[in-house]
Amino acid sequence: MKRGLRLTNKKQKNTEQAPPPQPKATRTSRYAPAPQAVPDAEDEDETDELDEAATGWQQTTVKMAGFTKLVTVVVWILVVAGPLLAFFAVVVASSSRATPVARAGQSQSQASATGPAGFAELYVTTYLSAGEGTEEDLLPYYSEPVSLSNKPNSRHATSVTTVAAEQVDQGYWAVTVAARISAKDKKGKTTDQGLHYFRVGVQVAGTLEAGGTAKPTVSPTTATSSASTGVAKSPKPSASPKPSGSPSPEADTGPTALYAATSLPAEVNAPASATHGGLVYGADRSAHGGPVSDTISRFFAAYLTGQGELDRYVSPGLQVAAIVPAPYQSTLVTGLRDDQDKPAGEAEEDTVPADGTTRRVLVSLSATAGGQDYLLTYALTLNTRDGRWEVAAVETAPALDPEQAGPVRGTVEPEPQPSTDSSSDSAED
Fold this sequence. Notes:
Layout lengths: L1 H16 L23 H15 L5 H49 L4 H16 L25 E15 L2 E13 L5 E16 L14 H10 L28 E4 L4 E3 L5 E2 L15 H15 L24 E9 L19 E12 L2 E14 L2 E7 L13 E2 L11 H8 L1
Antiparallel strand pairs: 1-2, 2-3, 3-4, 3-5, 6-11, 7-8, 8-9, 9-10
């Protein structure tokens, strides 16, 4: 009995200390979220206070009313600013669309005349040497049939250069070429006939750089075929109108520029001469020596003949080097004009002004090479430093006086022409 009682008490003791049984986990409940305790009513208030402290949001009526007012103000600002933003958008769009049109108009007036001018020079050179039996030499330039009666090579151009190129229409130029001509007389002696001027009409098919039109045009045939088939074709630049009687078929006007003369050259008068506008330089002071003349003489001796060190006579920073090989053996200053307001004949100062004084001068030189004297003119800017004059700049052109007019029509007579073959022959007879 005692043993049984002892066992019974031990079992009761173990029963009191054992934890409460927990439900067994099944296969389906292993992935389910863990059960959470449901808070009491008092715990809900504490949770709200913790959320409010963590997030900073206070769900109060006053603050929600302030937030509503803020949203209302923002909406009204957008409503008022809407028309203004639309107006600025229209202005910007209009300006962006107008810019390419303006640039296109500018590029039309800036078409290059290099191609038409070069074509005209070649054409005039070939024309002057052509004659009876060599008319085909003109076909690459002028496609109309021509019948010449003069002997081939009875005259030829020793030099040609373009003196004027005017764009009379899009892709159409009037080019004036100056040609120095040598011709043979009846005895076969070649004489210089002086300068002659010829004007040529040149038609161009190509880009602006070639002197042509800005935009390619679509031919009526291409437009008709595109409309009938419903397939758009890429346009090609229009070529010059094909002259009547041309033996060659119509050329393909691809990216390569095409040039064609519209007539034979027309001989014209020489362009009008002109006199230049006033310069800033005053009277000649070359007869009076001084520090300015000394610096200039030594500078050009080093620059043109290689005698002396050029760096000694130039200001720091001026990038200039002596000509190599030296083209002359000696130089002499024959004229010196400056921009100082001094009466003619007044001598140059013997002393050098204070540092930083600037003077512009126009120098005339006599340079000797091979026993011959040649005249040259240079425009310089001088500056004083450390008690001496230095060359601060070698100007690209003499300085103009802004108060005087620019180039005007001069009274210089055209170059006299040598006697013609007929007059020389009559004199000999």
